[in-house]
């Protein structure tokens, strides 16, 4: 250090005396670099801290549903090692089928966090709990996303660093991305967006330089993406689309050839290493576009070579005949291969992308997921605020120049705008490109309007001199520019406020723990912690091998928090199995009992929000259970019979007989009337219906074993079969006829009602 | 049609001259041709025995041929286009990239072939 200090003044003196301009330039560059680094640090800080609301408000907890599975898988990985993890057969889900979990998940997320955990614990010797690694995984990666977005934008838009920084700042705090990457939201998307941006950046880099090394790194990044998220198909189709458009525009170059061919071959080979993907890249139709473009490029390469050697007139004939024959062969080949079953036809999720009604008609299980619904218009504004207005401007500016890499952004934005309109969850892939385009538009605004020094100079000069028309126009334009800049700065400040507000209010709730909105006397908020209460009850009060039936939404949570065997979970790989549970919930008690007994079920868990006003409960999801099971057993389950005669879905006295006799209804409202003072009636606060005691049939085959503090989770146990072989319904009737009005075992709980 | 024939002949002559002048290109082209032959051979073999049983092995063998071919072509294109006059992308850099990519490719392939 001392040497450096000693030597540096003399060096500086030397260079200053020799070339003062060069040294000042170097100094300027150093400052620039320092400032850039500072901006990056700030960006990462902003990206990370704005995602910590959930940890501060609640605690370091895994959120929602899917993250619980990822967390459970990560714990398994950490405890058993990578090889066991890949060969993991999970017999505690999808009872009695089990699930080949190691072969049916994208291992990228778990291995990444497992790796980080290993490095911290064994190499850096920092003792960290795996849970904390998982919780803070998404915020950490969002910082990296910001850096890659900067690189992507800068490379895509004429090396414009301003646009790069703006886009990085936007992506760091845009709610559309935060919605999937708050602390605790330990889901595949958390890492996937980072990899999406890195793959795109490397692809653009490869395409611009034509270097096979960049193409190879793009392929490796693509491999990482494939290992992390099913959405990799988006890249598999977007990059070929980009190349295809360029080819149509007549912009073939050897750079394009090298970049795409190397990326495609290595990327495809690498992507087949993931067990879950397997041979899909050469079998499924989703991947055929990239193969076709690869073939087309080979042809272009050959044609380009011929073209450079022979005259253009001859080349045209050559081109025409070969193009037509090539397309004919390609289309014919695709159809025959699909016909003979060598290529898998398109999947249901793919169809539902084009025909929004497809899922509703054919696959209720896909339609029943709320994030597969079409996006509502306000949510575009909610998720990106001002950026959504700037987005078309940015695309327009790109159209004006239309270089090769601009075509990529345009293709991306057009495709994704469509997809985001079809499915809510694809808003996530649209957000990065909105940020990029908005940054491009804004950087142009700022660049043009901040070139004011020249006009400032003329104004100052003319102040001393005579009055001049020129000066007046200069002043006017100066004011105009300043007003524009200040307006946009104002918008940006509003944007930041909006982002903070949305993040803290809408996207930071773990949904496992809920804020009641009320406060204790000391000002601390009151939490509704019924889910964990119920799951821990299961964990500590039931046998280790007990089977718990619930609707599939809660499968992952039961597996993760209660550690009990479930029948169905959020993986939804077996529609029939889900329909079985749906049928049991929708049928009469005796039928349900038989179904559950066939599947060795010990406990049934339902979620009931009627007391609390929690609208995402099982009664509101009930119609999906009916629909899904109706798809398999149309004779036994009939959706209209659950409605009133005039077609309404009601739960009060007007409810249909089938509805009242269904297991779900009985379990939800068991003992509910008479809870709040009035001995025979209680109001269901979700549906605003009055439930009367006379309308809720008694439970004969099930008994209540647990109801959580706010009645959010209710757990029932299947009664043991009668020792004398009688039907349990008859037994119940007999006991109650004989006058022994058995006293209901009601849990002595003070319901918390505000 | 005879014009076309003539042009194509011209093309082939030109090609012959170009590889005479640069033995490196000659080696590369022979290598590429061999790769195409090996890939074709694997396909024929697969068709003859009418079985693709170790499908991953077949795929790995086939794709590595295609990939290596693509790498060769890229290197060749680079050599012809930039190799001599462009100092920024010198030959050496091209070769280093080529070697690195080939190594990555072979690593993945070997992993896949089991």
Mean pLDDT of chain A: 83
Radius of gyration of chain A: 31 Å
Count of folded domains of chain B: 1
Q: Proportion of β residues of chain A?
A: 5-15%
Q: How far from one another are the termini of chain A?
A: 66 Å
Helix content of chain B: over 70%
Describe the structure in your own words.
The complex is a heterodimer of chains A (754) and B (114). With 754 residues, chain A is mainly α. Chain B has 4 helices and no strands. In chain B, helix 1 packs across helix 2, helix 2 runs antiparallel to helix 3 and helix 3 runs antiparallel to helix 4. Chain B has one domain. The mean pLDDT of chain B is 81. The chains are: A mainly alpha (754), B mainly alpha (114). Chains A and B meet through helix 12, helix 14 and helix 17 of A and helix 1, helix 3 and helix 4 of B.
Write out key terms for the chains shown.
heterodimer, A: 754 residues, mainly alpha, Rossmann fold, 5-stranded mixed beta sheet, two-stranded antiparallel sheet, 34 helices, disordered N terminus, B: 114 residues, 4 helices, 85% helix, flat
Summarize the structure.
The complex is a heterodimer of chains A (754) and B (114). Chain A has 34 helices and 9 strands.
């Amino acid at each position: 250090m001392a040497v450096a200090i000693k030597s540096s003044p003399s060096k500086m003196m030397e260079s200053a005396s020799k070339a003062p301009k060069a040294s000042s330039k170097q100094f300027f560059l150093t400052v620039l670099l320092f400032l850039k680094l500072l901006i990056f640090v700030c960006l990462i800080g902003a990206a990370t801290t704005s995602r910590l609301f959930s940890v501060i408000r609640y605690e370091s907890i895994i959120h929602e549903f899917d993250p619980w599975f990822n967390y459970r898988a990560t714990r398994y990985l950490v405890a058993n090692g990578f090889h066991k993890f890949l060969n993991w057969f999970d017999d505690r889900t999808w009872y009695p089928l089990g699930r080949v979990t190691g072969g049916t998940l994208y291992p990228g997320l778990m291995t990444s966090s497992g790796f980080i955990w290993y490095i911290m614990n064994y190499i850096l010797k920092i003792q960290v709990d795996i849970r904390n690694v998982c919780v803070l995984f998404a915020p950490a990666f969002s910082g990296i996303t910001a850096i890659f977005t900067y690189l992507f934008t800068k490379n895509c838009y004429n090396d414009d660093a301003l646009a790069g920084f703006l886009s990085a700042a936007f992506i760091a705090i845009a709610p559309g991305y935060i919605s999937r990457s708050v602390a605790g939201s330990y889901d595949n998307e958390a890492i996937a967006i980072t990899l999406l941006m890195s793959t795109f950046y490397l692809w653009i880099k490869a395409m611009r330089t034509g270097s096979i090394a960049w193409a190879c790194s793009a392929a490796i990044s693509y491999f990482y993406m494939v290992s992390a998220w099913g959405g990799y198909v988006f890249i598999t189709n977007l990059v070929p689309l980009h190349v295809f458009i360029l080819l149509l525009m007549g912009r073939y170059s050897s750079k394009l050839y090298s970049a795409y061919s190397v990326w495609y071959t290595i990327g495809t080979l690498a992507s087949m290493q993931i067990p879950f993907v397997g041979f899909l890249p050469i079998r499924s139709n989703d991947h055929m576009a990239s193969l076709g473009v690869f073939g087309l490029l080979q042809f272009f390469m050959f044609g380009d070579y011929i073209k450079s050697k022979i005259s253009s007139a001859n080349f045209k004939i050559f081109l025409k005949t070969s193009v037509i024959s090539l397309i004919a062969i390609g289309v014919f080949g695709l159809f025959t291969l699909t016909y003979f079953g060598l290529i898998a036809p398109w999947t249901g999720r793919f169809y539902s992308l084009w025909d929004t009604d497809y899922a509703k008609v054919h696959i209720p299980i896909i339609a029943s997921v709320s994030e597969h619904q079409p996006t509502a218009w306000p949510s575009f504004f909610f998720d990106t605020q001002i950026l959504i207005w700037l987005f078309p401007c940015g695309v327009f500016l790109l159209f004006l120049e239309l270089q090769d890499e601009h075509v990529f952004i345009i293709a991306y934005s057009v495709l994704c705008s469509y997809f985001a309109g079809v499915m809510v969850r694809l808003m996530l892939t649209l957000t990065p490109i909105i940020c990029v385009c908005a940054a491009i538009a804004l950087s142009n605004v700022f660049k043009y309007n901040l070139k004011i020094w020249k006009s400032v100079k003329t104004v100052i000069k003319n102040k001393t001199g005579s009055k001049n028309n020129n000066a007046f126009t200069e002043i006017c334009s100066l004011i105009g520019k300043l007003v524009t800049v200040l307006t946009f700065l104002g918008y940006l400040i509003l944007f930041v406020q909006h982002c903070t507000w949305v993040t803290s209010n809408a996207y930071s709730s773990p949904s496992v723990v809920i804020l009641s909105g009320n406060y204790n006397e000391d000002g601390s908020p009151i939490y509704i912690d019924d889910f964990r209460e119920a799951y821990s009850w299961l964990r500590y009060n039931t046998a280790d091998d007990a089977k718990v039936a619930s609707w599939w939404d809660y499968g992952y949570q039961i597996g993760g928090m209660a550690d009990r065997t479930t029948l169905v979970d959020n993986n939804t790989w077996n529609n029939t199995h889900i329909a079985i549970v749906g049928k049991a919930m929708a049928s009469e008690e005796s039928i349900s009992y038989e179904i559950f007994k066939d599947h060795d079920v010990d406990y049934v868990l339902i979620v009931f929000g009627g007391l609390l006003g929690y609208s995402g409960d099982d009664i509101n999801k009930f119609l999906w259970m009916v629909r899904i099971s109706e798809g398999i057993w149309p004779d036994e389950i009939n959706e209209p019979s659950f409605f009133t005669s005039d077609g309404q879905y009601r739960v009060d006295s007007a409810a249909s007989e089938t509805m009242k006799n269904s297991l779900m209804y009985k379990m939800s409202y068991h003992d509910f009337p008479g809870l709040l003072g009035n001995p025979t009636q209680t109001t269901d606060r979700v549906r605003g219906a009055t439930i009367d005691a006379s309308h809720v049939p008694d439970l004969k085959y099930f008994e209540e074993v647990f109801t959580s503090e706010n009645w959010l989770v209710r757990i029932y146990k299947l009664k043991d079969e009668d020792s004398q072989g009688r039907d349990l319904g008859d037994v119940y009737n007999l006991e109650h006829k004989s006058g022994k009005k058995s006293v209901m075992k009601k849990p002595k709980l003070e319901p918390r009602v505000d | 049609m005879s014009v076309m024939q003539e042009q194509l002949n011209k093309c082939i002559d030109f090609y012959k001259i170009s590889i005479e002048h640069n033995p490196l290109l000659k080696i590369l082209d022979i290598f590429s041709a061999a790769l195409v032959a090996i890939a074709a051979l694997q396909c024929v073999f697969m068709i003859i025995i009418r079985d693709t049983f170790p499908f991953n092995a077949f795929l790995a063998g086939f794709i590595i041929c295609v990939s290596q071919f693509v790498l060769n072509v890229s290197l060749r294109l680079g050599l012809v286009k930039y190799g001599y006059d462009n100092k920024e992308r010198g030959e050496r850099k091209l070769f280093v990239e080529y070697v690195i990519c080939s190594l990555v490719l072979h690593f993945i392939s070997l992993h896949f072939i089991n």
